[in-house]
Write a structure and sequence with these properties.
The protein is mainly alpha-helical and 291 residues long. It contains 14 helices and three strands. Helices cover 58% and strands 4% of the residues. The longest helix has 20 residues.
Amino acid sequence: MIEEYCQHLWLEKGLSDNSIVAYRKDLNHFAAWLGEQRSSLLQANRQHLQSHLAWRMQARLKSASTARLLSCLRGFYRFALREGLVEQDPTLNIDSPRRGRPLPKTLSESDVESLLSAPDVSDTLGLRDRTMLELLYAAGLRITELVTLELEQLNLRQGVIRIIGKGDKERLVPVGDEALAWIQQYMKQSRPLLLGSVRSEVLFPSRRGQMMTRQTFWHRIKRHAQTAGVDKPLSPHVLRHAFATHLLNHGADLRVVQLLLGHADLSTTQIYTHVATQRLQDLHQQHHPRG
């Protein structure tokens, strides 16, 4: 049933592979827990679900992961009802946990400059990494969007890239002159050496000429952060957060930032206004005589 539902998510909902992996994991964990209660996904009732939520609370699991689980289960049981596999939806009238909205971890402009300058550009991999970091920050990309980028998505003449984001939604993102210059240098000097005799459309191949995994590049970001002396907490989205925050700090319109990030809902982008406001408050306290 879990695999049938995952096929449904791929065929009818168009969810990304990463989202489907997360949903499959949630369903397998819930099914395993139900097995310990001598029940199953198709036998579960409202009491089972409430007991599982209480268990998650006692285990101090994050409210965000519990909210994702409930969203997954709601979709699963709607699908099971439609297929005639269950007679009632156990998720009805169960509220999602309240989710706090922590401010995204970001970097100052000087931190970003240090991070971008960390790779050794005289080295083939160093030049590739510098170009990837420049593009990640210049366009506010997700790491997955960056490592899967192909040549045909890049338009150097117009200075834009066509990004295929979550749910296969496309957006055009402008790229600044600095990042474009690094891309051109990388494509002349580094990319041919990485590919060798291998033919590939991937813009940023691994040393074996294949598509790099997002985990591999994330490890390389952390390594360059150590080299740069950036000791702030990092996340895979750190340069994406910095991209949005710095745009707003310099007066960009919120809806423009929404379009550039590829957010479907403006409320998702609004979290960055709090980061920008916090920055203003910090500056006020630091420099105002009565701060």
